[in-house]
Structures are given as structure tokens and as C-alpha cells.
Amino acid sequence: MVARDARLERTARGLVWGAFMNTGQTCASIERVYVERPLAEKLIKRIVELTEALQVGDPADPDTDVGPLTTRDQREIVISQVNAALAAGARALTGGEVPDGPGYFYPPTVLVDVDEDMEVIQEETFGPVMPIIVVDSLNEAIARANASRFGLTASGWTSSDSIAQRLQAELRAGVVTINDHAVAFAESTGSWGGLGESGIGRAHGRFGLHELVNIKYVAHDPGTDRAAPWYYPYDEDLGRFLGAAMPLMYGRGLDKLATLDTLASTKRFRQRVRKGTLLANLHKLL
Fold first, then answer.
1. Residues near 127 by Cβ (< 8 Å), separated by ≥ 6?
2. If DSSP codes are grouped into helix, strand and coil, which group holds residue 239?
3. Residues 86, 78: contact at Cβ < 8 Å?
């Protein structure tokens, strides 16, 4: 999502890299761009310039920027989605045509005049395609972005700290980066995972480590008492004991102390509560 105050060159270069790296074949690649109208014309012009400067060719060549797609079937998916968008009124400002020659190549493609009903917006293209949608406000951009059933990564582009904080909080994705895209995957201490249909669970960081273990909670009572306070018999004294103990354990403020007299007057408290243990842990209650 590109705010109207985003830095033009950084944003254009970041979007081109985020959409076309690895020929768009990453789970975190940019699938659609929402840009506020005041910046749209200049940004789109610069994106097209940078896209047309990319070198498409043999990935073993050190000068190649964009290689082929992995399989014939995957290229057919890209072709189908782009052609369907063009037939429905979208325009390809660059790319959009299958090149001649061997290999499953497809040129980096920038689409405009796309809408939310097009498959290229609804689905994960997993190819070198950047659809751009011009919006009138941040509210519209956030709402449109969050309407997707996918939610692995999102990026916000802005020079404003307040807008950045809003995008971080409101964009519905497992990973949100500001003025960059996808690089969070390389941060081993940061969690990685999505919302919606973009996966379950997290990788990386302590949350990722928790995905790899079975959590076991252990409670250890020394067992020296004849009975715990909540054991049978169920009687009136138990009701008074629990009625006084619950506010003390889970209430807030000094009001929780109002039940101390009632608690102390019960037989359960006198016979089944270890007073020394209670005093040692009183700070936890208060």
C-alpha cells in the first residue's frame, strides 16, 4: 500500500524488486499494489521505466535479472490470468505477451485499470505480474487490501511515522514491512507466518520454536495436606469459601480485600489452607 507521501524512487525500486524477484515465484512476492491517487501517475511511470530495464534471460548469466518460470503449467496460469484481465479492460503498460523461443519465460508485466473481480487480483499469480490499483484514500486502500482471503505479507510505503504505525496496525497480514518488502523472511528472530488462507502457524523466532515443541504444563503440590480446599464435601461452608476466594484471586484493586474476613471465617480456610504458603505468595494476590 503506497501512501501519497511515499518517496518516489525508493518506493518504485522496492515495488519492482518485490514483485519480480525470483520471477515473482515466492510466497511473499507483491501480488497487487494500491497507490493513493496524488502519487499514482509519477509512481506508475517510474515503475514502468524500471521494469523495462530488467534483463530477462538465462538465470546462469550474471547479468540476468529475471529468469523463466519453473514449469509450463505455471506459465499457463500467468498467461491465463493476464489475458483474462486484458479482455476485461485492464491495460498492460509493459509486458503481457509470451516471448518467442525456448524456455518458460514471461516478461515482467505491469497492469493498470484492474479491478477486484479479476482473477489476477483474487488469486496468487505466482509470476512476474504487478497489478496496480489507484485509490482515493488510505481508508480505501486498507479496506481493499484486507478484503483478500490471503494474508502472508503486506508492505506500506510512506515517509510519515504516523501513517507507518497505522499501516502496521491495520493491515491484515502475518508480516508487515514499511518501505521494504519480503526481507523479513531473512530475519531469523522475527516470526514468519500468515493469516487467512496463507498458512497456519509461525516459523522463525521464539514463536517458530514453539511450533516445534509440545507444551506441557506441570502443577506440583507437595501433597502433605489431607485434602485440598475444593475437595468434598460440597456444603454451605464451601460456598462461602469459594465466594470469598474468587474475588481475592481474580479481582482488581483494594476491593478484593473486602472478602478477607469472610474467607478467614470459613472452616475450609482454617483447616485446609497453608497459611505460610499463602503469606509467602501474598504479593501475587495483591
1. 23, 24, 25, 69, 74, 75, 77, 78, 81, 106
2. helix
3. no
Q: Report whether the peptide linkage leading into residue 222 is cis, meaning its omega lies within 30 degrees of zero.
A: no
**By the 8 A CB rule, do 90 and 112 touch?**
yes
Give the residue-averaged pLDDT of 77-95: 98
Local confidence band at 69 (pLDDT 50, 70, 90 cut-offs) = very high
Q: CA-to-CA distance for 209 and 169, rounded, in angstroms?
A: 24
Cβ-based burial of 15 (10 A; exposed 0-12, middle 13-18, buried ≥19): buried
Q: Is 153 left (phi over 0), alpha (psi -120 to 50) or beta?
A: beta
Residue 25's identity, in one-letter code, is Q
Report the DSSP pairing between strands 109-112 and 91-94.
Answer: antiparallel
Domains and CATH numbers, the chain: 8-201 (3.40.309.10), 236-285 (no CATH)
